[in-house]
Design goal:
Helices cover 86% and strands 0% of the residues. By secondary structure, the protein is an all-alpha fold.
């Protein structure tokens, strides 16, 4: 039982994966924002591209 109590400060003080977790949170946030922007502006963008394509001669 004493061994578990001795290992606890080492586990709580270990921050070796902190940088990776921060990058994962940033990537998830960027992906969420990208999905939101595409959802918000996607239909308008498609309509604009279709209108532009219709103006180009074959």
């Amino acid at each position: 039982m004493a061994a578990e109590y001795q290992a606890m400060p080492r586990l709580l003080g270990d921050d070796s994966g902190q940088g990776l977790l921060e990058y994962a949170i940033i990537i998830a946030f960027v992906a969420l924002v990208a999905v939101g922007v595409v959802t918000l502006f996607g239909k308008k963008t498609v309509n604009s591209l279709n209108n532009s394509a219709a103006l180009v001669p074959n």
